[in-house]
Structures are given as C-alpha cells and as structure tokens.
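B., you asked whether I could sanity-check this one before it goes into the benchmark set. Here's the sequence:
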Amino acid sequence: MSRNDPMLIDNTAALLAHLESSRMTFEWLIPPKAGQSILLSPSHLRLLVDDAPVASCPLMGSFIRFVCASIGEIKHTPGTTNSATGTLKLSTCMSDRMLDIDYDCTELPGVEGSCYSGGGLISVPLTDFLLDHEIR
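And here's what the prediction gave me:
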C-alpha cells in the first residue's frame, strides 16, 4: 500500500488497534470566511494513520462526527485560516476507555491580540461509542 492510498478501518477492533498504538492523527482546516466561533464539522477534519488518509466508511464517518462533537466549538478570527494537527490516543480512566485528543492549532496570518492559537487536550469516554458500533 502506498502512503497516499486510503487506509480502511471498518471495525472497532482495527480502530482500537490504531488508537492504542498512537498511529492515528488528524488535521483540521477552518477557512478565512468562517465566523468568529464555529462548531468543528466533518468537512473540516481529516483523519490519518501513519500519514495516510483514512478511507470513508460508515464506522469512520461516525467516528469523525464523534471527534468533532468532542472538540466542539473552535474560536476563530475571521479573515485567517485556522489549522491544527493532533493525535488520537486510547487511555483508561478507572474501567472506562477514553479517547485523548491532543492538538496544536494556529491562525495564519497572525492577528495581533488574537488568542485563538495554541492547543489543547480533551479526554472523552469512548465506551459508549464502541458499544454503539460493535458488530452484533
């Protein structure tokens, strides 16, 4: 498989394997015309495994929506492009599987006084998502 061939992840076991090995990353790109506050949507987010894009399938469509909802609202300076890179990792809190979303974002061109660049770490329970998508 070439580096640019999409990687198919069509079951939760494969998804968990990539998250456990910390091989899954993401990028987002919010265009200059976006408003000052925007909910991250699947059209802004791209998932990668070892720098190869993740193929579209029902499971990954749901997972992208889950990641977007977990990140939520992005503050944005109109007229700039907000971009981010980050990693998706599996962790455990007590008995619950957690998804750690670690990212750095920046706006270009930089606007004096803007504080919308930086990063974050979000940790959300993954157990319900996995139960909803197990093959029965």
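One thing to flag: The two ends are 30 Å apart (CA to CA). Otherwise nothing jumped out at me.
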